[in-house]
Amino acid sequence: MTESPRWLDENQQAVWQDLLTVVIALPTLLDRQLEHDAGTTNFEYSVLARLSMAEGGTIRLSDLAAQCDSSLPRLSKVMVRFEQRGWVTRSPDPDNGRYTLATLTETGMQKVVESAPGHVNRVRELVFDPLTAAQQRNLGIALSRIAGTVREQLDNRK
């Protein structure tokens, strides 16, 4: 005998539909802003921003892929474009040659610095400005729990 699915109740269905809108439409809106203002995508900006926050602007590609919730092949394609633009360099990890390091160049850092204000303004406008401080804290708590579960499931696929 097959177990009946645990259907969403009316409130859960409404939350789920709102979450789908955010998950699907928010990246599109962020892409539009970044493509218009900076000539990059939201994913590309995320990669550059994470590199800029890494110690010395350098990080293993495998670690960067994990931080960006990306596959290594997808990130490698982005790295090729970034190298062509002079934004990053890649080199073997001197501590373990099986790994590759990505390093943000001065030109890459300049790209982050130029792109950040418009991106931050758009994120504030779309995500934080509609919420009170208490709602922002609650959203952070809820998203942290959901993201933890999602990352755990992704890690289990290895």
Strand content: 5-15%
Instruction: Quote the average pLDDT.
Output: 94
Structural class: mainly alpha
Q: Helix content range of the residues, please?
A: 55-70%
Adjacency order of strands in the biggest sheet:
1-3-2
- What is the gyration radius calculated from CA atoms? 19 Å
Q: How would you sum up the global shape? A: globular
Describe the structure.
By secondary structure, the chain is mainly alpha-helical. It has helices spanning 10-38, 42-53, 61-67, 72-85, 106-128, 133-156, and strands at 58-60, 88-92, 100-104. Helices cover 69% and strands 8% of the residues. It has a three-stranded antiparallel sheet with strand order 1-3-2. Helix 1 packs antiparallel against helix 5 and helix 2 crosses helix 5. The longest helix has 29 residues, at 10-38. The protein is globular. The model has no long low-confidence stretch (mean pLDDT 94).
